[in-house]
Amino acid sequence: MNSRCPHSGCRLSCLVRLRVGAFFIACNKCFEALPATLQESEEGTTMATQEKIAAVSELKELFEASNAVILTEYRGLTVAQLKELRRALGAETEYAVVKNTLAAIAAKEAGIDAFEGHLQGPSALAFIKGDLIDAAKGLRDFAKANPQLIVKNGYYEGAALSEDDVKRYADLESREVLLSKVAGGAKATIARIAQVVDALRVKLEEQEGAAPAAAEEASEEA
């Protein structure tokens, strides 16, 4: 799109705007003069700063790198509480406070429509690269102690999750617990098999010992 740069102080009479994704930005020299200003194009499209473009790109990468994402509202939580929540979620989940408009654009560019209409109010996204069940449990347990945290909805492996879906995942046993149970069951099965084998071995040994004795007794009688 070509139109005169709206920055009245621009000495370059900038005529070019570069379209980047969903945004319009002025030329670099004009942009440097207004590093934090949003401007309106002739169509009413909001022009964004380079920082916002970078933020959308980063959020898009997080969406694409995560196997699950959960949307929450954190209204009323303190900085200290947010730090506590991040620690509770662990290293495989990144909990990020987001701008709703930028998050909506990033989700759309990543091909995710699960959050349309849900990005309202103070929003934070839990980008989960590990086990969804563990992250859902972490959010549930934190919300019990801090009811200001509200789980709104989510996304998992191509499908949208409702608030109730997230709660159901939180109630499931984690992968580690299930593996532990399977391992415990396998050990018990192996132990039972070993007992049966030992019993058979003892029985066979007794039978083998009884056979020569019976033969010797029969020979003496003859």
TrEMBL record:
<protein>
    <recommendedName>
        <fullName>Large ribosomal subunit protein uL10</fullName>
    </recommendedName>
</protein>
<comment type="subunit">
    <text>Part of the ribosomal stalk of the 50S ribosomal subunit. The N-terminus interacts with L11 and the large rRNA to form the base of the stalk. The C-terminus forms an elongated spine to which L12 dimers bind in a sequential fashion forming a multimeric L10(L12)X complex.</text>
</comment>
<dbReference type="GO" id="GO:0015934">
    <property type="term" value="C:large ribosomal subunit"/>
</dbReference>
<dbReference type="InterPro" id="IPR043141">
    <property type="entry name" value="Ribosomal_uL10-like_sf"/>
</dbReference>
<keyword id="KW-0687">Ribonucleoprotein</keyword>
<comment type="similarity">
    <text>Belongs to the universal ribosomal protein uL10 family.</text>
</comment>
<dbReference type="InterPro" id="IPR002363">
    <property type="entry name" value="Ribosomal_uL10_CS_bac"/>
</dbReference>
<dbReference type="InterPro" id="IPR047865">
    <property type="entry name" value="Ribosomal_uL10_bac_type"/>
</dbReference>
<dbReference type="Pfam" id="PF00466">
    <property type="entry name" value="Ribosomal_L10"/>
</dbReference>
<keyword id="KW-0694">RNA-binding</keyword>
<dbReference type="GO" id="GO:0006412">
    <property type="term" value="P:translation"/>
</dbReference>
<dbReference type="InterPro" id="IPR022973">
    <property type="entry name" value="Ribosomal_uL10_bac"/>
</dbReference>
<keyword id="KW-0699">rRNA-binding</keyword>
<dbReference type="GO" id="GO:0070180">
    <property type="term" value="F:large ribosomal subunit rRNA binding"/>
</dbReference>
<keyword id="KW-0689">Ribosomal protein</keyword>
<dbReference type="InterPro" id="IPR001790">
    <property type="entry name" value="Ribosomal_uL10"/>
</dbReference>
<comment type="function">
    <text>Forms part of the ribosomal stalk, playing a central role in the interaction of the ribosome with GTP-bound translation factors.</text>
</comment>
<dbReference type="GO" id="GO:0003735">
    <property type="term" value="F:structural constituent of ribosome"/>
</dbReference>
